[in-house]
Each structure stands twice: as structure tokens, then as C-alpha cells.
Amino acid sequence: MSTDESGAAAEIDAIIANAGDWHGPLLAELRGVILSADPDVVEAIKWRKPSRPEGVATWMCDGNLCVADLLKRAVRLTFPKGAKLDDPTGLFNTRLDSATVRAIDFPEHARIDADGLRGLVRAAIAVNREG
């Protein structure tokens, strides 16, 4: 795991660059929204394994907020404590039956509701800070 901001940022830059298609720019846009939610949000790389040596882009603030996965047909943001979050704009569209996790799949050409996503990130920060 890397929690060094500059090191993790560079590794996430590499994940974006290596995506090579629409996934990279979409992840970059999502990343910008996540980072704009709170100045205390930090980037990390977690869950390295032989099948995924680059690891998983993760955003944290007093705990994990969300993680990004590049799927064949979507960029997925998974919120580990998503079931505890209010989602007034209805962004969560997958993992809805999980007791804890919620996720958003962003397909190619997705329009990002930046305000709604920023609100979810802020709600995740509040849940983390509540303990």
C-alpha cells in the first residue's frame, strides 16, 4: 500500500495513462471530482496482486472513501461504506443488494454528476469521521 501522496498520485497517473482508451480520461475526471470534495482526501494504491500489479486506485480520508476499478464496459467507483450513505441524486447503480458496499458504474460517454458525486464523497468522509 502506498499512502505517500506524490507516489500514489504518480501511480494513479500511470493507471490512467495505461488505460489507453476512454477509461483513462473518465477515471481522470472522476479523480478530479473526488479530490475536490475535501482538502484532506488523499490518494493511495492498495490491493496489489500478481493479476493486478499496478494495484487499485483508492481515495481516503480517515479511512477508505472509494476505490476505482476499470471494467470492460465501465469505470466502477466502489464505496466500502456505501450502504450508510444518503444518495439523494440516485448515483448508486450497482451492488445495491450488499449490506455494506454500494458502487457506481460509469460507462463510456457517461455524464458525471460532479455535484452529486462530490456529495457522496463528503458523506463518506462524514461516516468515516463518525467512527
Distance between the termini: 22 Å
Please, how many helices? 3
- SSE series: HHEEEEEH
Strand order of the largest sheet: 1-2-3-4-5
**Rounded average pLDDT:** 93
**How many beta-strand segments?**
5
- What is the percentage of strand-forming residues? 15-25%
Largest sheet: 5 strands, antiparallel
In the predicted model, the low-confidence regions spanning at least 5 consecutive residues are none
- Structural classification: alpha+beta
Assign an overall shape.
globular
Helix content: 25-40%
Radius of gyration: 14 Å
Please supply descriptive tags for the structure shown above.
alpha+beta; 21% strand; 131 residues
Summarize the SSE layout with pairings.
Blueprint: H1 5-19, H2 23-36, E1 42-46, E2 56-60, E3 64-70, E4 75-79, E5 102-106, H3 114-130
Antiparallel strand pairs: 1-2, 2-3, 3-4, 4-5
Structure write-up:
- The chain starts with a helix and ends with a helix.
- With 131 residues, it is α+β, with helices and mostly antiparallel strands.
- Helix 1 (5-19) packs antiparallel against helix 2 (23-36).
- Helix content is 35%, strand content 21%.
- The protein has helices at residues 5-19, 23-36, 114-130, and strands at 42-46, 56-60, 64-70, 75-79, 102-106.
- Strands 1-2-3-4-5 form a five-stranded antiparallel sheet.
